[in-house]
Amino acid sequence: MSIFLTGATGFLGKNLLRRLLNDGERVSVLVRGASRLGVRHENLTVHEGDLEDRDAVAGAMRGATQVYHVAAAVKEWVKDWSVFDRVNVAAYEQLLNIAADEGALRIVHTSSFMALGHSDGPGIGDETMPRDPDHFHNPYERTKFLAQQIDEKFIQRGAPIVVVQPGVIFGPGEVTEGNIVVVMLRDMATGKFPGIPGHGGQRWCYSFVDDVVEGHLLAMSKGRVGESYVLGGDNVTLDELVDLASKHLGRKVPRRHLPLGLLRVSARMMEWGARLTGKPPMLTAGKVGVLEHNWAYSSEKAVRELGYRPTPFPKALGKRWRGCVPRA
User: Fold this and answer.
1) What is the rounded CA–CA span in Å between residue 130 and residue 272?
2) Do the beta carbons of residue 37 and residue 9 sit within 8 Å?
3) What's the helix, strand, coil split of the chain in %, to 5?
4) Distance (Å, rounded) from C-alpha 115 to C-alpha 127?
């Protein structure tokens, strides 16, 4: 049995790759540059190429019985916004067609909590919650939702797809746009954290990266074809996050609340400047829009059906993170 993994140079993908190799699996990956991978192993086959290149994907997937599709365009700001539709939608549909041709027995698709939509209102969300298909805060949210529509189409044709929807993933590793908790901790530790966006009561679902990796393996081995599973963790408010981070770092962190209206105006100005300079803005209107809402979800289905066991947020925050966050 062999495995094909996309997104191996990303935060989650690299952690999943290491786990698969440590478990003795034979893994094939497709990356734009082998030097970006930073992993060598006798059971690892590295193919250079782009996810949009059908021949490159087919060559890297050949012979694989299991497929983990983790790759996605996640940027807050890009010069060419069509990259989200090309990578998150068109390239994914192409990958599913190739997987059908190659006879893959199981596909685990890494979706996102954002594909479910925000969870404003009473209670918390889950895999069954309805969402407004016409309102999105950014291209990432829109295209991850569209990718799940593609899942539904292929599942109806008999494709062996299991979908997982992680919350806000955090943990040790590279400081990327996707590892936003570590970015916040570093800003807090270095005195660059300006304050709490909005009223601070917005509740978000945080997922420790080791749990999400384990959840992917469980989805591959136990997940029911055609089903989706939230791989979440504790639902924590922004105020609570700052309190816990302050304790973890051993230093005081600014607790002032920054009005979302002011942040929205600032974001528009930064975006205007970015269009002139070509440099990514520190804040976007889409990000401010996301910060307005609750993104809280239940992982009960994954716990019940897969045996998923999320690490409590304070415990995960207290783990040693290989020096990626400065401490007081």
Assistant:
1) 34
2) yes
3) 45, 15, 40
4) 10
Q: Which residues are CB-contacts of 36 (< 8 A; sequence separation ≥ 6)?
A: 9
- pLDDT by residue (tens digit) across 268-307? 999 999 989 988 898 999 999 999 999 999 999 999 999 9
**CB 272: neighbour CB atoms within 10 A?**
11
**CA quadruple 74, 66, 14, 167: dihedral sign:** positive
Give this prediction's pTM. Answer: 0.94
Domains of the chain: 2-177+206-237+297-313 (3.40.50.720)
Are 229 and 215 contacting, i.e. CB atoms less than 8 angstroms apart?
Answer: yes
Residue 2: strand, helix, or coil: strand
Q: Which residues contact 61 (CB under 8 A, 6 or more apart)?
A: 4, 28, 67, 95, 98, 99, 102, 104
Residue closest to 112 by CA, chosen among 167, 60, 56: 167
CB neighbour class for 240 (10 Å; exposed up to 12, middle 13-18, buried from 19):
middle
- Residues 122-153, buried b or exposed e (16+ Cβ, 10 A)? eebbbbeeebeeeebbbbbbbbbbbbbebbee
> Phi-psi bin for 70: left (phi > 0), alpha (psi -120 to 50), beta?
alpha
Secondary structure (3-state) at 202: coil
Cβ(178)–Cβ(140) under 8 Å? no
**C-alpha span between 26 and 42 (Å, rounded):** 9
Give yes or no for a contact between 151 and 109, defined as CB atoms under 8 angstroms apart. Answer: yes
Left (φ > 0), alpha (ψ -120 to 50) or beta: where does 121 sit?
left
Give CA separation, 140 vs 73, 114, 136, 149, 223, in Å.
7, 8, 9, 14, 25
In tens, the pLDDT along 129-146 reads: 988 888 999 999 999 999
Closest CA to 197 of 279, 285, 75: 285
Which of 163, 39, 37, 24 lies closest to 92, judged by CA? Answer: 163
CA 185 – CA 192 distance, rounded (Å): 10
Q: Which amino acid makes up residue 65?
A: T
